[in-house]
Amino acid sequence: MNLFIVLATGRNGHHAIINWLCTQHGDITHYNDLDAPYFNSRKLRVKRPPIVYGNGTHTMASLERFPVLKWQTLKQENSKYFEHVDNVQYILVIRRFRNWLASVMLQGNPPRCKTHNRLIKRPNAAHWIKTPGRYHQLLTAAINAEQHPELLVIRFDDWFTDKNYRQNICEYLHIPFTDAGLNKVAYFGNGSSFDEQTYDGKAQEMKVLERWKTGLEVKEYAETLEVYSILDELSEQYFTKPARVPCP
Fold it and tell me: What domains, with CATH codes, occur in the chain?
């Protein structure tokens, strides 16, 4: 059995990428947002039933709460589960901070604030609020990924726009490239924050790379983006560099 472990955080675009990968793979089971104790048991724990593609022989597990910078400890700390794994591939998904922040804070078209979001209630907290703190971990791991060839970073922005980039990802993962599933809007998380399931079947038409522009019209978003300006700057520096997929 091959195991794909996806490290991400909510509203990061990883559900679209996971569905795209699984659709092309054709023989895999996706466990979304794996609960602790993660891989301590042969039976993986998730809030919703897994999605089975084909016979579901292999496993795709997404981790949205596991401490990202400790990803290398997963295999060592869960050795009993990994005894049954032939190959493991770690995948980290990340998108530009300003677009991610817009999807976290806003909803609808035209956008409005999500009333339950802690970022709006405490935008000036002195300590790292949990969600941006996790994004910072993802960005740190992505920046340092060249030191860890076993970690594949998939940049959502480049994945969304660049067919050659998507083809290189499939080649690296030994998955036949067909681009099937590219226009599917995953139902996990109720689809898009802005469009929900409206663009299912035509996901490439969504303005996912311009969320921050419409977000600036919302006072709370503009103020919060300013609070996290250093993190936004780090993200912009990272995404201005060419996306790279290691040779398989």
Answer: 2-239 (3.40.50)
Distances (CA, A) of 108 to 25, 188, 191, 224, 229: 33, 17, 12, 18, 24
Q: Quick one: how far is CA 137 from the chain centroid?
A: 13
Task: Say if residues 7 and 76 touch (Cβ distance below 8 Å).
Answer: no
At residue 63, the 3 state secondary structure works out as strand
Residue 208: DSSP 8-state: G
Q: Which residues pair with 196 in a beta bridge?
A: 192
3-class DSSP state of 94: strand
The pLDDT tens digits of the residues spanning 171-227 come to 999 999 999 888 775 655 555 444 445 545 555 556 778 888 888 988 888 988 998
Before 248, cis peptide (omega within 30)? no
Per the CB < 8 A criterion, the answer to whether 17 and 203 are in contact is no
**Whether this model's pTM surpasses 0.85:** yes
Q: Is the peptide bond before 110 cis (omega within 30 degrees of 0)?
A: yes
